[in-house]
Amino acid sequence: MDENFLINASNISLEIEQRQILNNISLQVAKEQIVTLIGPNGAGKTSLVKIVLGLVKPSSGTVTLRKNLRVGYMPQRLHIDPSMPVSVDRFLKLAVNANRSEIGGVLKEVGASALLNSQLHSLSGGELQRVLLARALIQAPQLLVLDEPVQGVDVNGQAELYRLIENIRTRHKCGILLVSHDLHLVMSATDEVICLNQHVCCHGHPEQVSNDPAYLELFGKKDAETLAVYTHHHNHSHDLGGDIVEKREK
Question: Given CB 3.0 to 4.6 Å as the disulfide criterion, which of 71, 124, 209, 220 pairs with 193?
Answer without folding.
Answer: 209
